[in-house]
Amino acid sequence: MGSSWRWHLSRTMRLAMRWCRGPQRGGGCGGNRPWISGRCFEVFVCLVVLLTTSVVVIIYLFVLPTILSTYPLYMIVWHLCYGHWLLVMVVFHYYKATTTAAGSPPKEKTQIPVVSICKKCITPKPPRTHHCSICNQCVLKMDHHCPWLNNCVGHFNHRYFLSFCLYTTLGCVYCSISSKDMFLDAYNTIERYYQTPPPTEPYVESTAHKSIIFLWVLTSSVSVALGALSLWHMILISRGETSVERHINHKETRRLRDIGKVFKNPYHHGTMNNWKLLLGVEKRSHWFTRVLLPSSHPPNGDGILWEFSFSRRDPMAI
């Protein structure tokens, strides 16, 4: 009885998520999909855009005037440069992460390396390829399906997703620290409203105080949540794994350990090399032009052929 209701619940959730996606256009994650294509997941994208816009508006209306009027010149220049650099990086990488297809195995090619046959697509699966039940399609080096992007995170947009998480975390930390003193003043002022009699305050100042409190609470919360997510993905990248492969490799490690063998990840080329492969860093100047500045360069490889860090004789997860 217990397994029966779990099966029905799982099936209902899969059908609901598939309905929320709406009709396929442009081949799902592997084709030229539109920015917002689902009926339900587009709400998450709109929420990200709305919250980001609200933070930027509050910064321009209330925080930036205070910085310009009270801070020394060198601090003003630093805030203007650093804040706008973070804004550009966040907007650029979010746009690229949502509009760039994660990639899918080419169906017209037959001479490609495969490790199995997808039971749902009934097509060959190259290494590191997994089926997305939401997009109903196999995705190259699939990490996960992100509702906040309304897109799969895979080979061709993994870098954009990670950069968006990192720069958004840095931006939220920056906003939270920059508005801390204003938040404390606004919080103390709001507390006086519960006194008898409440203080009389202009409407503009009251709106400013509420906006600052909203800004600080939002950016502080996102800093913690998104910072933890970013840290987890950074650990996976350092190990040469995706979220899906982490689960598979963990099971394979336990299985091989029980029979006296050691599992080795075939896609782990060393921490620094893993990061270079993901970020597309081929020479020293690329750390500036491709990491610290907006860049649309494609990832290394086509997502089908992968170099192994050791021979096939070693145990590996398929």
Describe this entry's structure for a reader.
The chain is mainly α. It is 55% helix and 5% strand. It contains nine helices and six strands, in the order αααββββββαααααα. The strands form three sheets. Strands 1-2 form a two-stranded antiparallel ribbon. Helix 3 runs antiparallel to helix 4. The longest helix is centred in the C-terminal third of the chain and has 36 residues. The radius of gyration is 24 Å and the shape is elongated. The protein starts with a helix and ends in a 27-residue tail after the last helix.
Task: Detail the topology: elements first, then pairings.
Blueprint lengths: L1 H20 L20 H29 L2 H27 L16 E2 L6 E2 L4 E3 L4 E3 L4 E3 L4 E3 L4 H21 L1 H12 L11 H36 L4 H16 L12 H9 L6 H6 L27
Features:
single chain; 318 residues; mainly alpha; two-stranded antiparallel sheet
Please give the count of helices.
9
Give the SSE order as H and E letters. HHHEEEEEEHHHHHH
* Major sheet details: 2 strands, antiparallel
Global structural class? mainly alpha
